[in-house]
Amino acid sequence: MATQLASAQAALAKRDARIRQLEDFAKNSEATRIKETYEKIVKDVKKDRDQARQDAAQRIKALEAEVGQLRQIKTLDGEVNHLRQSIEGPSTATGTPPKPVHAGSNGDGDVVQMTRAQIEYSERKYKQLKEESSRQKLQLEILNAQLTVDQPSNQYIVVQWNQLRDQVRQLSLERFNDVKPLDSISEDDGKTLEKLSIHYRTFLSTERMPCYLFRSLIWRLICDQLFINFSLVWGRQVCDNLNNMGNALWKTGKISQFEFQGWRVHTARLVHKSHDIDESVVDTVASKIQDVMVRFASGSDALKLHSKIREIVRLAADMGSTFARTKVIPLMTNEPRSNLTHGFQCNANTMNEAGQVIKDGKVSLMITPCLLERDGDEYSLLAKADVVS
Predict the structure, then answer these.
(1) Where are the alpha helices (DSSP H) in 294-338?
(2) What is the pLDDT of residue 103?
(3) Please, what's the largest Cα pairwise distance for the chain?
C-alpha cells in the first residue's frame, strides 16, 4: 500500500512539473510572439515613414524645379519684345532651333543666348501658363460661390440680416410712424402691444416713437410665424418630416448637442440643394402679418402694404434657410433660453440703444433681434439688437 501511495505521489509531482514546464513554454512563446509582432510593427512604421519622407523630398524637388522654370520663363518674357525686334528671318514652327542668333540679358547681368524659336516657345509657354492660371482662378471663384450658398460665411449672413432689417425699418417709417389716439386701439390690439412693452401707450402718443413699437411688432410676427421653425421655409411637409426625424434622434444622454447640431446643419444643407423656398408658405405668412399690421398702418393703400410685407417675408424666408443650415440664430430676449422681452437691464455688449422712454436703464422695448452663433452651449455675437430703454 505504501509503495502504491509513493508511486502515485511521484506521478502527481511529475505531472505538476510537466504542467509548469508547459506554462513556462507558453509564456515564453507568447512573449516572443509579442516581441516579434512589435518589432515588425516598428519596422513597418519606420519603412512607411522613410517612404513618406522620400516621397515628400521628391515632391519638393520637383516643385522647386517647376518654380525655377516658371521664374526663368517670366524673366525671359520680359526680353521677348525687345529680342523679336532684333531678329530677322523666318521662325521655326516648333521645337528648339539649331543655333542662337541673338544675346540678351536675363536681368542678373548674365548674357543668355536665344534663338527666335526659343523666344516664341517661351512666349507660348508663358501664355499657356497664364491661361491655365486664369482657368484655375475662375474655378476657384465658382467653388467659393457654391461654398457661400451651401455654407454661408458669417459676413454673408450679416449682410443678409442688414438687408432684412433695413426693409423692416423703412416700412415702419413709411406706414407706422403716426401718433395714434389711445381710444382707437382695441382691447385685443392693446394686449398684443402690451406683450411688446408695458409702456406701449407712451410709444403710441410720442412723436417719432410709434415706428419703434410697430417695427418690434413686425419682427415678433416674423419670429413667431417663420423663425420659430427654420425648416418651414421649404414647406410644411418637409418641416414635419425633419421635426419627426429630429425628435426621434434627440435622446438626452445618448447624443450630444454638438452631434445633433451637426446633423441638423448637414441635413438642412442637403434639403437646401434639393428644395426651393416654398412660395405658398411665404404667401401664408405674409397674409397673417398683413392681417395684424393693417389695423395700425397709416394711409389707405392696403395692396401696396401687402406687397411690401411680402417682400420682407420673402427676405426673411431666405434668412430662415440660412439659419437652418448654419449655427446662427436670432434672439429677441435678454439672453438665450430666456422668455424676458423687456424689463431687464440694458446690455451694451449685445444691444444698441436707439432711444429712451422711461430712462431707468432697463429695456422697455426690444425693436430688432440680435444675431448669435451657437456652438454647443457657447454663443458669439454677430449683430447687436436694437432696443429702447
Answers:
(1) 302-324
(2) 44
(3) 127
